[in-house]
Structure formats: structure tokens, C-alpha cells
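Example record

One chain of 153 residues, shown exactly as stored in the release files.
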Amino acid sequence: MFRNLLSRLFLESPAPDRLSAQDAEIAIAALLVRLARSDERYAESERQRIETVLARRRGLTRSEAAARRVAAEMIEAEAPDTVRFTRTVKERIALDDRMDVIAALWEIAYSDGRRGAEEESLVRLIAGLLGITDRDSALTRQRVLTEMGLRDE
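Predicted C-alpha cells for this chain:
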């Protein structure tokens, strides 16, 4: 399954079709995992928050979300550099869903109550690669902070 998804993500023709809903969610989840791992501390709070985000996005049960996270961890470990990976995701998901991805990334970045420089840099990179402006990303970050009951650092 994982090799098949990696093949569909990175080895197909230059004008790819949209991903299936499940494949797109696993690719998005892999971006969340990549962000969580970016500061070299992949904490249980980040794993749980990824599962919460995945469950909320598509109405999954907790066990389905956990399985999707595990699949995403495997995909993330095999995926190429962030630039190529994110560009592939951009080509395959709609713009409105990309804004939701940025919100999910900020949520993961703050899942331990603070954001690190590595995480912030990676969210900014991914936002740009997904075609999201810095302004829209910052507004999304503020919304996520409010929803999480946190204040900006």
C-alpha cells in the first residue's frame, strides 16, 4: 500500500490526477508528521494532536486516525525533500483544503504549547509552496491560537 501511494505521489506523469480522498489525507498527514519531527522531538502530544486533527478532518474514529498517522509516518520517512513533497501535494489538492492544511500545521506546531523556530520555518515554507500567502498563514495561526486558548509568543 505504501509503495503504491509513494509511486502515485512521486513517480507518475507531470500532469497528475487528483489523489483519492484517502491518499490525499495520508499525504497531508505525512506533512503533519514531517512538521512534528522537524525539531527532532516527536512527542506523544504531537502524535495525539495529529490523530485529533485527522479524526476531525474526516470524521474518523480514534483507531482509524491512529492507523492513518502510522501510515503517514511511513510515507513521511520515505518521501523526498519537503519542497518536492509539498509541491506534489499542492498539485493534487484543492486550494480551500490547503488552507485547512495550514491550520492543521499550526495546530501541530503548538501542540506542546509553544512553537520552535524549526517548526515556524517549516510551516512558512510549506505555506508558500502550497500557494498560501504569509498574511493568510499568519491570520490562520492567530485563529488556531485562539481556538487552542493560547497566546502568541
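Notes: Residues 43 and 105 are 15 Å apart (CA to CA).
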